[in-house]
């Protein structure tokens, strides 16, 4: 404006006229591009679809999505009776659900007020920060949660912002293929599946085109560290030490993208990964599982010696049975991969903790999943209790239903109850990131053992400054709670599968503890120490998964079991539900 006013009059008129022409031009153009009129859609400034690959894959050599009629898979959810959904049940559910929704609204308001468009809001200092390339991680991750909770006004406000995301614009030199896939791509695909808003699929496809370039390496295995400069120069290589989770957690998102766009290339690259998992499954140092790190650069070497369901591995296992479901049961390879992996996990990773006798009746029937070190002959179990590993209950139970294995459903329940029990064991009512207990001997039945105080003292906290740990915990390697979802995730899955009403009370107890320990004036925050008595010190961090996962699972467990039914949707590891092929579970849907 300042410049315009200082111009001579005729120049001003000329500029105004030129402006009018431009405006008219864009108005006319928008008429031909429906997304722009609806949501103010802006295409990403670099068209990744037009990028020339250094190591192209020709379409004729691609593996296509399996063809055929989706199989009639077993029903996953418990069939709830009207007696179970009685008036008092419905009333309690509604009250609890409303409480979760209030927490979500509070969180969302903090984000829109103080960090709109940024990756996350800091819950205490109320500043926006960018931790995932500044494309608006919380914005995209929350879309489906807003939709599910019926927050339609907020959903529309978010879509309008998402329609303008430019995947070519970021201050970082690289992005994480894994994080970008599960949060951004997963969030967009799920929000599209729920709402049918085409602009979300368009943004997902744009992003998919970009992430596809991560596979432009000499062996077409992905580079998780997606370095923009290396990508543009065709110099990307897959890592010699990549976490198994990073390579094994792209399959659902890339498959859904192929299903929705009809473009087979996304599915082709993750099917290639599956073949490497198949080829190596029986030859690792713990046959049936893959180590936490894999050498991708040298064609998928799996010689490392550490195995776990926690960080670095978790969702690679989670996705095996879920891929079987997403593909309508048309790829038996995923069933074999899952079945073998679960069998090894059951024999070597699962254990029952030694529990004090303080219980009036029998001690609770619970399990945890630890870490195994193996050189191929000696197998050592480290009895870790890791929050990230708490998803395993849901995984076992889902697979058990899917493949008619009631024993696995039961194991899933014991694992889910184990994490809920661990929450209860700490004074805040929340379990830490990583702790350890004393394991019972791993018998086939994973049966209980006697409490041995001497043994616990030997393994347990020692020295003058040892933390006062509740029994039966021996070590606390990381005492934080980071607002994580895995424990409530498994309770949710187990409730939908078994219909057992006491799981709802466990979930509510968990919620009250989490709320009391983490709530700040404007939002919720990760905390420093779950073993603190009374006041909890906050970390001033709230990642996007709090709204995407934790609050969504809390909301869903207290909702009508028909809302996002496990017979119609399958969740990615960031709690984004993808729609299943029509005939997936149960006849007549
Ligand atoms: C209502 O259903 C719940 C489980 O959903 C059950 O625990 C409770 O006993 C039922 N109440 C009545 C009055 O039937
Ligand atoms: C308890 O543990 C100690 C230390 O490992 C061991 O010496 C003792 O035999 C154990 N007691 C029983 C009853 O197993
Ligand atoms: C409780 O809610 C469910 C839906 O979630 C409904 O099917 C059922 O009829 C309700 N029960 C009563 C007693 O109103």
UniProtKB/TrEMBL annotation:
The family database entries (Pfam families) matched by this protein are listed as: Glyco_hydro_47
Catalytic residues (UniProt): 179, 314, 433, 486
Keywords for the protein's UniProt record, in alphabetical order:
Calcium, Disulfide bond, Glycosidase, Hydrolase, Metal-binding
Disulfide bonds listed in the record: 390-419
Q: Which cofactor does this sequence's record say it needs?
A: Ca(2+)
Taxonomically, which superkingdom?
Eukaryota
- UniProt: Ca(2+) binding residues: 573
What is this protein called in UniProt?
Answer: alpha-1,2-Mannosidase
């Amino acid at each position: 404006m300042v410049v315009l006013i200082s111009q001579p009059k005729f120049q001003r008129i000329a500029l105004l006229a030129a402006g009018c022409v431009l405006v008219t031009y864009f108005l006319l153009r928008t008429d031909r591009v429906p997304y722009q009129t609806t949501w103010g859609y802006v295409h990403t400034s670099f068209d990744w679809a037009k990028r020339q690959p250094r190591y192209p894959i020709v379409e004729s050599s691609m593996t296509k999505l399996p063809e055929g009629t989706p199989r009639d898979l077993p029903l996953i959810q418990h069939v709830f009776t009207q007696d179970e959904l009685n008036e008092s049940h419905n009333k309690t559910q509604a009250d609890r659900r409303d409480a979760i929704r209030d927490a979500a609204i509070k969180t969302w308001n903090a984000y829109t007020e103080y960090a709109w468009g940024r990756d996350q809001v800091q819950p205490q200092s109320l500043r926006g920060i960018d931790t995932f390339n500044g494309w608006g991680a919380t914005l995209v991750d929350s879309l489906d949660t807003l939709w599910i909770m019926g927050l339609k006004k907020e959903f529309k406000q978010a879509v309008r912002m998402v329609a303008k995301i430019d995947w070519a614009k970021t201050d970082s030199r690289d992005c994480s293929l894994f994080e970008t896939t599960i949060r951004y791509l997963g969030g967009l695909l799920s929000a599209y599946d729920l709402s049918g808003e085409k602009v979300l699929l368009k943004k997902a496809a744009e992003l998919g085109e970009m992430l596809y370039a991560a596979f432009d390496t000499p062996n077409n295995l992905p580079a998780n560290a997606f370095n923009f400069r290396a990508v543009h120069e065709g110099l990307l290589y897959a890592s010699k030490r990549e976490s198994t989770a990073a390579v094994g957690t792209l399959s659902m998102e890339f498959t859904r993208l192929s299903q929705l766009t009809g473009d087979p290339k996304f599915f082709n690259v993750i099917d290639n990964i599956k073949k490497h998992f198949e080829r190596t499954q029986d030859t690792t140092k713990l046959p049936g599982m893959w180590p936490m790190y894999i050498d991708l650069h040298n064609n998928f070497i799996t010689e490392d010696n550490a195995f776990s369901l926690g960080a670095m591995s978790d969702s690679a296992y989670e996705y095996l049975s879920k891929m079987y479901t997403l593909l309508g049961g048309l790829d038996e390879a995923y069933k074999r991969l899952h079945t073998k992996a679960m069998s090894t996990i059951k024999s070597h990773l699962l254990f029952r903790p030694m529990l004090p006798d303080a219980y009036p009746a029998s001690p609770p029937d619970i399990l945890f999943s630890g870490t195994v070190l193996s050189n191929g002959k000696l197998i050592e179990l480290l009895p870790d209790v890791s929050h990230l590993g708490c998803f395993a209950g849901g995984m076992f139970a889902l697979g058990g239903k899917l493949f008619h294995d009631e024993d696995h459903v039961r194991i899933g329940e014991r694992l889910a109850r184990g994490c809920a029990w661990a929450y209860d064991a700490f004074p805040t009512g929340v379990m830490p990131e990583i702790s350890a207990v004393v394991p019972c001997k791993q018998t086939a039945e994973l049966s209980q053992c006697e409490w041995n105080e001497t043994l616990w003292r030997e393994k347990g906290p020692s020295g003058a400054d040892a933390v006062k740990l509740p029994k039966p915990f021996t070590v606390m390697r990381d005492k934080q709670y980071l607002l994580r979802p895995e424990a409530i995730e498994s309770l949710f899955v187990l409730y939908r599968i078994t219909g057992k009403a006491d799981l709802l009370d466990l979930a509510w107890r968990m919620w009250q503890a989490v709320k009391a320990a983490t709530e700040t004036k404007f939002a919720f925050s990760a905390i420093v120490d779950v073993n603190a008595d009374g006041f909890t010190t906050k970390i001033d961090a709230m990642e996007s998964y709090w709204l995407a996962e934790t609050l969504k699972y809390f909301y869903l467990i207290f909702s009508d079991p028909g809302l996002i039914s496990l017979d119609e949707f399958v969740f990615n590891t960031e709690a984004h539900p993808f729609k299943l092929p029509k005939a997936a579970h149960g006849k007549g849907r």
